[in-house]
């Protein structure tokens, strides 16, 4: 839903912390099919969908890409995703 702010917008508003975003990145890299990750109080993020809908999803899935590159692309996809109310 377009009315729901992105994770990045919520971070700028100090409603989501960098630590919470990093926890989401780690969760996705450890379990790429995670669908309901509690990113902040009252907010969940479908990590699998957030990454699948990102333009770099193929690069993220490419295991020959460096871990640093994959982590950066996952973080970018998460920042652009829109969490849902829990």
In short:
The chain has helices spanning 7-12, 18-30, 47-52, 57-61, 67-80; strands at 37-40, 43-45, 84-85. By secondary structure, it is mainly α. A three-stranded antiparallel sheet has the order 1-2-3.
Could you give the topology of this structure?
Layout lengths: L6 H6 L5 H13 L6 E4 L2 E3 L1 H6 L4 H5 L5 H14 L3 E2 L1
Antiparallel strand pairs: 1-2, 2-3
Helix pairs in contact: 2-5
Could you describe the 3D structure shown?
With 86 residues, the chain is mainly alpha-helical. It is built from 5 helices and 3 strands, in the order H-H-E-E-H-H-H-E. The chain has helices at 7-12, 18-30, 47-52, 57-61, 67-80; strands at 37-40, 43-45, 84-85. The protein has a 3-stranded antiparallel sheet with strand order 1-2-3. Strand 1 and strand 2 form a beta hairpin. The longest helix has 14 residues, at 67-80. It is globular, with a radius of gyration of 12 Å. The model has no long low-confidence stretch (mean pLDDT 92).
List keywords for this structure.
single chain, 86 residues, mainly alpha, 51% helix
Broad shape = globular
| Share of helical residues | 40-55%
**How much strand?**
5-15%
Point out poorly predicted stretches. none
């Amino acid at each position: 839903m377009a009315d729901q702010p992105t994770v990045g917008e919520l971070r700028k508003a100090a409603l989501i912390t960098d630590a919470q975003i990093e926890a989401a990145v780690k969760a996705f890299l450890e379990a790429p099919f995670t669908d309901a990750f509690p990113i902040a109080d009252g907010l969940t993020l479908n990590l699998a969908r957030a990454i699948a809908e990102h333009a770099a999803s193929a690069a993220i899935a490419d295991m020959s890409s460096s871990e640093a590159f994959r982590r950066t692309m996952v973080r970018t996809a998460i920042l652009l995703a829109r969490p849902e109310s829990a």
